[in-house]
Structure formats: C-alpha cells, structure tokens
Amino acid sequence: MTRIYPYVAALGLAILLAGCAVPGRDMLGVPGQDIEVQGSRFTVFVQGNRAEAIRRNFEYGVGHTGIMERGYIAIQAVSGCDIVPGSYDGDPARMVARLACPTG
C-alpha cells in the first residue's frame, strides 16, 4: 500500500491543479480573461505585445494540433490582435505568442 501512495498523491495534486490558470512569471499580476473556443476553455493574459493562454479544462483523447489551434483563436479573440507569424509556441496546456496590434 505504501508503494502506491506517491502515485495517488500525485494524481490528487494533478486533479486539484487542473482547474488553475496560473500564467508564467512574465504575466503574473496580469488579469486574465476566460473564453471558450469549440469546447476548450482558456484563460488568456495579454500584456503589451505578448499573450499567454492557459487551457482550463481536461480534454481526453484530443490531438495536440486541435487544442493548439483553439488556443491560437482564443488569443486573437481576447487580444483583438493578430499573432506575429512564427511567434506562436507552447503545448496544449500553455500557449504563448507575440502580438501585432493595430495602431490608432
């Protein structure tokens, strides 16, 4: 029984943290905006010409490409800006991008 305890504890911690939307340190203190895109829930943080999206829901069996595409849409929708080509990066849990916002 004691050999399985670390795995049970890790699973419990993962479940607790699954609903958290804690951005990277560059975005700490920046208010996030929640958005849902095609069933994926994100909190998007925008500061200047940078954005970060944190996926908030558990998606079982979904390919990484689909989640990444929805994160891209979420960042553009919340920021109102285009994403600089080649700047979008991350993984299905956390996506980052540089923004090209209209001036004026």
**Major sheet: size, sense and barrel closure?**
6 strands, antiparallel
* Poorly predicted runs of 5 or more residues: none
> What share of residues are in beta strands?
25-35%
Helix content: 25-40%
- What characteristic shape results from the CA principal axes? globular
Determine the N-to-C terminus distance. Answer: 64 Å
Strand pairing plus helix content: what structural class? Answer: alpha+beta
Number of structural units classed as domains: 1
Would you tell me the overall average pLDDT?
A: 85
Compute the number of strand runs.
Answer: 6
Specify Rg, calculated over alpha carbons.
16 Å
Alpha plus pi helix count: 2
Set out the fold topology.
Elements: H1 5-17, E1 32-37, E2 40-47, E3 50-55, H2 64-79, E4 82-83, E5 89-90, E6 94-100
Antiparallel strand pairs: 1-2, 2-3, 3-6, 4-6, 5-6
Task: List the main descriptive attributes of the protein structure presented here.
single chain; 6-stranded antiparallel β-sheet; alpha+beta; 104 residues; 30% strand; 28% helix
Compact overview of the structure:
With 104 residues, the chain is an alpha+beta fold.
Please provide a written account of the structure.
With 104 residues, the protein is of the alpha+beta class. The protein has one domain. The chain is built from two helices and six strands, in the order H-E-E-E-H-E-E-E. Strands 1, 2, 3, 4, 5 and 6 form a six-stranded antiparallel beta sheet that branches. The longest helix is centred in the C-terminal third of the chain and has 16 residues. 19% of the residues are buried. The mean pLDDT is 85.
